[in-house]
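User: I'm designing a mutation panel for MFS transporter and want to avoid disrupting the core. Could you give me a predicted structure to guide residue selection? Please restate the sequence first so the numbering is unambiguous.

Assistant: Good idea. Sequence first, for numbering, then the predicted structure tokens:
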Amino acid sequence: MSDTKAALNNPIYPVMIAIGVAHLINDTMQSVVPAMFPLLERDLGLSFTELGIISFVLNMFSSALQPVVGFVSDKKPMPFALPIGMMSAFVGLLLLVLAESYWLILISVLFLGFGSAVFHPEGSRVSFMSAGNKRGLAQSIYQVGGNSGQALAPLISAFILDVYGQHGAAIVLLLATIGIALLLQISRWYIRQLEAEKSQQKKKKILISSLPPLTKKQVGIALGLLLTIIFARSFYTTNITNFYVFYLMDHYDLNLKTGQVFIFIFMAFGVLGTFFGGSLSDRIGRKNVIILSVVGPLPFCLLLPYMPIWVVLIFLIIIGTLIMISFSVTVVYAQELVPSKIGTMAGLTTGFAFGMGAIGAVVIGFLLDKIGIETTIQIVSVLPILLIVAFFLPKDKVEKTA
């Protein structure tokens, strides 16, 4: 892993892939929480609202801390925050495996949330540092790792937790051990990279934005639009990944395993969309990809609750692919809006996504308890209409690379 490559604005693919794998492991650990929802509802008798609160605590704690970690790391990079974050997640997962009460579950997800909050901004920074002139691709590889980890949640639920119970999640602790070792190596590269930049101040990479010069007011408006997009996308995908399996079981009489396979397919195609979205944005522009992720899935989102089961699977594939095609692109777009605050923007966008997912989980859980599964799913299906604000984002130019 060459330190000089980054200084020459060339991508460093081994680092890109390594941080993507670490992201996969981190988010696999986080995904154990929603994977346990059917088990916790069945065995501990938790209500949908209580399940929503668990998700809220996990994601909101992470959401609140991520911009703070990003802001601090912009001023003073923290290479070893990466393995420390995963160590915290390890402790949280261990407590979750052993938890026999609702309150211990909440404590365990605090450790998981802290680990996630520390990991994401610094992980995104490593991805950016290794990107060279392939920012979209690098962020895609990084986010594909995370989304792949999240996509494992329904499989963990169906084929591990449903078979071995709550203690079956201990298998994921082995992955965490590998992740800690990997992040220690990445942290050492990170330190060498910082030293290389200090010793080559004149050659230090200048962050060039693909956006035109914008006033502070224009940047603020653009960030507001971007956060609206993230809100609608996160709220909708939280509905699908955390609670739609209950709709599949109630409305279509699917069993848990089959329902979780449907959710896995949605998330797997979301991973595919995330991967191609970043590299596509390097070719056709960030805004164009974000608009594609709005126009493409909208009619399918609106019609999904009313479709027969064989159409549902097709719609989930289309929605998963298209709505997630802008996932990594929104992070890069925010970083290019404020190119001097890479960590802060990564923390803001990913943290806000976590936060909106957290609020969405509580609201949807409450609605499920109060008005029923079918009505709730129908209400949430109209949320993607908010994504049309993407048309008002400032237009970026496509970067020309040699």
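For picking mutation sites, this is relevant: The domain at 10-392 is CATH 1.20.1250.20 (Growth Hormone; Chain: A;). The chain is about 80% helix and 0% strand.
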